[in-house]
Structure formats: C-alpha cells, structure tokens
Design a protein that fits this description.
The protein is an all-alpha fold. It has one domain. Helices cover 84% and strands 0% of the residues. The chain has eight helices and no strands. Helix 3 runs parallel beside helix 6. The two termini are 17 Å apart.
Length: 169
C-alpha cells in the first residue's frame, strides 16, 4: 500500500528523480562496461581487437533495443492493469514480459551462434577482423539472455511500475 501513497503524495520532480535514478545508473554502468572493455582490449590485443568490439556493438544494441521494446510495452500494460486495480492481469502481464524476453534472448543466442560469421560480415567484418569479432561476440552471446532481461526491466520502468525500483528517499 505504501507504493500508492508514495506515488500519489509526493512532488513530481522528486518522484521523477527517485524513480529514474536506478535506470540512469544502470545504463551508465553498461556504457562504462563497454568503455573499459575497449580500453583493455586495446591494451591487450590492439586496434584489430577494438575493431572486433566495434563490429559486435550494433548487435549488442539490437539485443538491448529488443529487450527495451518488450519492457516498455509491458510497463504500459502493467501500469494500465494496476490502474484498473486488476492485480491478476498485472501478474499475468509481468509473467508474459518475462517469458517473452527470455524467449527472445534464447532465440537471439541460438541464431547468433549459428549465424555468427554471417552477422559479423553483415556489419562490415573483413577476413582480418572476423576472428577478433567472432571471439568477442561469442562471449557476449553467452550473456544475451541476462542482458535482455536487464534491458527489459531496468530502463523500461517495468521494475518501477511493479514497485521494486528504489532510489533516494
């Protein structure tokens, strides 16, 4: 019950800051991950390694975009269900969001490993860069399901709508 009071009794500016902070921090951490990855690969492998990471980046963005697409749609449906007071529909919606994002993540992982070289060539890989991009993306693909779930829950506000977002008091 406290969630309803917090959302209805506080000022919009304060709520906006409080509820958007977790998503902002999450996206910042994910961006820093890519920057640090690029630095270490540059030191260890060199420019060809950085080019391999750059070739994998659009694929990572597509995975994140698909997760956000499902999450934003789910957040909208979840908000409407909660607004109607229909908790059963809200629970089903949240379950459907999770099943959808896990299914999409699994399909991307399987197809990604199956068509890895073709995808990389589609994004401009040459024979010289293909081994670097393949090695990096094969590691990234192992975490696609987790990345999809994170992108569907945090930035899209599904977690906020579900009442599990936290921020400064």
């Amino acid at each position: 019950m406290e969630q309803h009071t917090v959302l209805s009794d506080n000022r919009i500016g304060r709520l906006l800051f409080r509820l958007s902070l977790p998503a902002t921090i999450g996206m910042l951490v994910m961006s820093l991950y890519n920057v640090v990855d690029t630095i270490f690969i540059g030191w260890g492998v060199g420019t060809a390694g950085i080019a391999g990471v750059a070739l994998a980046f659009p694929i990572q963005m597509i995975v994140g975009a698909l997760g956000q697409m499902i999450g934003i749609g789910g957040a909208s449906l979840l908000s409407r269900s909660l607004g109607e007071g229909n908790m059963e529909k809200a629970r089903k919606t949240l379950g459907n969001v999770m099943v959808s994002v896990l299914s999409v993540g699994a399909v991307i992982t399987v197809v990604g490993y199956w068509k890895l070289d073709d995808m990389l060539r589609l994004f401009g890989s040459t024979d010289t860069l293909l081994p670097y991009a393949r090695e990096y993306l094969s590691i990234v693909l192992a975490g696609v399901i987790f990345h999809s779930v994170a992108m569907s829950l945090v930035p899209s506000s599904v977690s906020t709508v579900a009442g599990v977002s936290t921020g400064p008091a």
